[in-house]
Each structure stands twice: as C-alpha cells, then as structure tokens.
Amino acid sequence: MLTYILRRFATAIPTLFVIVTLSFFLMRLAPGGPFDLEQPLEAKVMENLRRIYQLDQPLHAQYLTYLGALLRGDFGPSFYFRDFSIAELFAQGLPVSMRLGASALLLALTIGGPLGALAAFRQNGGADHAVMGFATAGITIPNFVVAPVLQIVFGLSLAWLPVGGWNGGAFRNTVLPIMTLALPQIAVIARMTRAAMIETLRANHIRTLRAQGLSGATIALHAGRGAALPVISYLGPAAASLLTGSVVVETIFGIPGIGRYFVEGALNRDYTLVMGTVVVVAIFVLVFNLVVDILYALLDPRVRLD
Amino acid sequence: MAPVLEVSGLKTHFFTRAGTVKSVDGVDFHVDRGEVLGLVGESGSGKSVTGFSIMGLIDPPGKIVEGSIRLNGKELVGLDEEGFRKVRGREVAMIFQDPMMTLNPVLRVDTQMIEAVTAHDRVSHKAARERARDALAKVGIPSPEERLNAYPHQFSGGMRQRVAIAIALLHRPPLIICDEPTTALDVTIQSQILAEMQSLCAETGTALVWITHDLGVVAGLADRIAVMYAGRIVETGAVDPVLDAPLHPYTSGLLGSLPAEGEPGAPLRQIRGSTPSLARLPQGCAFAPRCDFAQADCLAQAPAVTAFPGERGVRCHHPLNLAGVAA
C-alpha cells in the first residue's frame, strides 16, 4: 500500500512539470503584456519595467528562471498587485477559499448522499421524484442566479444574513456563499448516489444477502459500500475545484478568496499570478486524485491486490 | 411423511407496462425430505421465478397472485418481510447461477459467512467464524482457515461456487433451491460439484430443488423431474420413466435435441419456433404452435393434468408413449 502511494506520488511530479511548461508557453502566446495599459507607457519606462521583471530576456531563459524559482518554492512577485508577492496573495486568499469549499463539500456530502440513498430505496416513489426534481433544479440553475436570489431572500427581505462581505470569516457571512457553492454539488451527489445505489441494489450479491435472511439494515450497509465508489471518484475533482474557489461566488459575495485570481490574472496578463494559480490548482487536483485512488484501494480489494 | 415443500396452484405474475407477464401460471409440485427434484425448462419457462417465489424474492412489478407454498407445513405466501427473513437461509437456502456475482466482491469471505451465521443464530464472532471454517472444509476447500481471509475474486469459479454452497449449508436448511449453480462452470468442475452436493445432501437429509435446462445434469442427480413450459409444469414423474418414455411432446423434443441422441455427424434436431411471449399466451395449449402432434382441440383448450400411477402427470391432450405408462 505504501509503495503504491509513493509510486503515485512519483508519477505526479512529471505531470506537474508538464502542466507548468504548457501553461507558461501558452500564456505567452496571448497578445499583450502586464504593462500594456490603456495609455501606453513611455518607451523608456516600459524598457525599465521589462528589465526589472526580466521580460527583456529570451523566452527560454525566462522559463528556466521561473522553473528554478518554483523549485525553491518561490512564486515570484505579482505584476499587477505591485506590493504583493504571489505567495502573500495565496497566503491571504487560499485559507478563505478552502474554508468555503470544504464546508460546501461537507454539506453536499451529508445532504446529497442520504438524499440519493433515500431516492434509491423509494425508487419511482414520491420521495424519489421530489429528490430528483430538486437535483435537476440544483444542476440547471446557475450559481449567478442562485446567489442573488439568496441575497434578496435572506439578506434583504428577511434580513437574517449579511448580503456579502467576509467580515473576518464570521459564520453569518459564510452561510450564503456556502449554500450557493453546495447546491449544485448536493444535486450531483444525490443523483450519483441514487444511480449507484440502484445499480448495487440490483446486483446479484445483494439478492444473495436477502436469500441468506440478512436484515434490511445490513443489506443497506453492503449496498452503501458498493455505491460509494462512483461517488468517490467524482468527489476528487469536485473537491479540487471547490477548494480552489469560485470566481462567481467570490465576486458576488465580495469574498477575498483566490477564485478571482484566475480571471484577474489572465485579464491583467499577470504572468506570475496565472502561473501560481495554475500550480496551486494542479497540486490540488493531483492530491485529490491520489486521495481518491487510496480510498478506492481501501474500499475495493480488487484494486488493492492486483 | 409430509413433504418438505408443497407448492400448489402457484401463480406469479409481473405487471409490466407491456402487459401482465404470467411467468408462473398455476404450478403444483412437492419435494419430499432428502429428495432431489429437477425443475427443467428453457429460458423464460418460469423455473427461476418459481424458485424466487419460494424464497419470497419476487420484487415489484412481480407478485404472487394466487396459490400456496408450504414449507414444512408452514404457509409462506403472504408472509411479511420479517417473517420471510427468518425463513430464508435457515429453513430454505438458495444457490445462484453465477458464483462470480453472488458474493460481495469488496468483502472478505469470512465477513460474509459470519454475517450469514449471525443472521439467524446469536453466537460469538469466534464461534461463527469456526462454523464458517468447518463449512468450507466440508465442501472441499483446501486450507479453509487461510481461505477465510481471502476475497471472492481470489477464488476460482468452482471454489467460489463451493463457498456459496458452504454458505447455503451453514444453517443446515431442510431445503436448498439451486438455480443453475453449475451452468457457469467447466464440465469437470461441474461433475465434481454435483457429486459433492449429492453426498452432502444425503448426509444431512437436505432436499434439493435443482433448477436447470440441462437434462444431463438432471439424469445424474435428480430423483424426480418436473418439466416447465410457459409458466406451467407440463410433465412430472420419476427421472428414469420420464426420460426413457416422455409423455409430453415437449419433453420428447428436449430429449431429441440432446447431441448424444443423434447419429454422429447428423444435424441436431431442434424444437421448431421459440418460446411464446408470456404476456400473450395462446388460448389453447401453450406448446401447440410448436408441437408436431397438435390437433384442433390443442388450439382450442388448454389441457388439464392427466395423472398416472407413480406420481406421473402430464398436461397434454394427446400424450406420447402411453403404452409405457399403462404397462
């Protein structure tokens, strides 16, 4: 098991290298640069800026410089947020995004999983139709609609919760963004759990359990374990994307997370910020895929022992 | 002596959107203590549904609409889920066709066997494990102690089916329903398992309902045979007379389509046509459209059972080989 994990770790490093290389050159293909403002800078100023940020050097030299810095754990300075290094921006924003994302994920699991299981056990019944109707709505209504509706209902009409702002991470301020983030996830997890559960309940080994006279509760546990596998493989990428923040939710609720950096970095040609975001997201995706693989191996001996 | 199992007038129908599928439509049979009954028929003849009906494993849209199933004198039809749960595994066990699929792939064999033991008996984990080990040893699994720690996919097909048999025998039920348990296995493994099943049941006095489409298996294993066609038993009797001189043209056709019956190199005989849709059965005898001996009355009216001495019965207006029965 340990060698399995180490081997997976070893394969993650070249993957990360490829991602960094591709994004570095792809981004440089885009026209414009970090200092192209609406009013062009004086040629002399521009030249100085380019020299300071080493943009005057050949591209491959810049690439090697960046790679060297990255190996030392240095993400470089931001081109746009002049007083901040990329590391400082992430140190501020990442905990915020991760807290929101983790809460949303937890909420989605604790609500979506049981809802899906309930729907599976009451297949084609009223509860099933209700859950599936809700799930379809949750998937189809985009978060930029859900967020303002929640703000209007709970923030303005009922005035129970603040409309936006972070307020140092007060619980009241996190409720609406977490709900917005969790809603589509609840829907997806409910649907997946239902489908996986129905399939498992039809499996022959479940029929065998019934034929042995086992109780309904024991059978549900067996089915749950079998149904967990597809849901877990969905959760890996979902967790990675949730924890690294959402542009829409962070913008609408005015939350200082890192989700907005992807868009802002790209629009401003803030090369180091985009690269930093790419590296962080890539690490999250790789780590969570590894976690999924480990969970899979724990749950299914056929994966572990082959 | 009262039979272990007595099924009478059993009708199990499936209410689908396409119509009512009469999978089992008036089946009567009994199994005596320690007896092996071969329940034979093509796919879709209702033999498996009969087995599932006995186990109470008919799920919606299926339903037992009529009839009675008495196990050791106790009526099973109408029993609630908890009542059935107590019967299953203890008073009647079932072994299924595909041993690959019938065990939970993600749990060790000991976990599954211990669960099966504790489903009916309040015993310690250790005692349950010992019983599981003894059961594995009994069905001829080498080094059972180590094999208890294995997962189902680490067993060969034959070994997996032995595990399934061991689980069925855990509570020494008076009756085991075997739904084609050897169909998916190699012929050599199949005959080993058949022989072991036979001796185990003789030892414990367990009766078997052996569901199969393989007349060869029935000939070697069963005491009596019941041939099913389109949800009904069309012929029943002791194995040898039925196979030597079948009364029903369908039984005769089944026998005729066995490769061993023909000359080497000669094309195999087959029953023409295919099994009728159980949602739209013909008005008369269900087999009439495929029968070489069908006459006007066959198409008009479904035949009732004609009984002969020696628990022999046939559902046919014009049975074959009548001389054999009369003599």
Which term fits the overall shape of chain B? globular
Distance between the termini of chain B: 28 Å
Mean pLDDT of chain A: 88
Number of contiguous helices of chain B: 13
Strand content of chain A: under 5%
Oligomer: heterodimer
Strand count, sense and barrel status of the largest sheet of chain A are: none
**CATH homologous superfamily placement of the domain at 90-270 in chain A:** MetI-like
- Which stretches of chain B of 5+ consecutive residues score pLDDT under 50? none
CATH class annotation of the domain at 90-270 in chain A: Mainly Alpha
H/E order of the elements of chain B?
EEEHEEHEHHHHHEHEHEEHHHEEH
The CATH architecture category of the domain at 90-270 in chain A equals: Orthogonal Bundle
As a percent range, the share of helical residues of chain B equals 25-40%
Separation of termini of chain A? 11 Å
The profile of the biggest β sheet of chain B is: 8 strands, mixed
CATH names the topology of the domain at 90-270 in chain A as MetI-like fold
Report strand order across the widest sheet of chain B.
6-7-8-3-9-10-12-11
* Strand element count of chain B: 12
Can you describe what's shown?
The complex is a heterodimer of chains A (306) and B (327). With 306 residues, chain A is mainly α. Chain A has a domain at 90-270: MetI-like (MetI-like fold). Chain A is built from 13 helices and no strands. Chain A has helices at 2-29, 43-52, 59-71, 86-121, 126-140, 143-157, 171-202, 204-211, 216-243, 247-252, 259-267, 271-299, 301-305. The mean pLDDT of chain A is 88. Chain B has 13 helices and twelve strands. In chain B, the strands form two sheets. In chain B, strands 6-7-8-3-9-10-12-11 form an eight-stranded mixed β-sheet, with helices on both faces. A four-stranded antiparallel β-sheet of chain B has the order 2-1-4-5. In chain B, helix 4 (109-118) crosses helix 5, helix 5 (125-138) packs across helix 7 and helix 7 packs parallel to helix 8 (187-204). The longest helix of chain B has 18 residues, at 187-204. Chain B is globular. Chain B starts with a strand and ends with a helix. The mean pLDDT of chain B is 86. The A-B interface holds A 203-205, 207-216, 218, 222, 225-226, 299-302, 305 and B 55, 57, 81, 84-90, 93-94, 96, 98, 101-108, 115-116, 119-120, 151, 153-154, 164, 167.
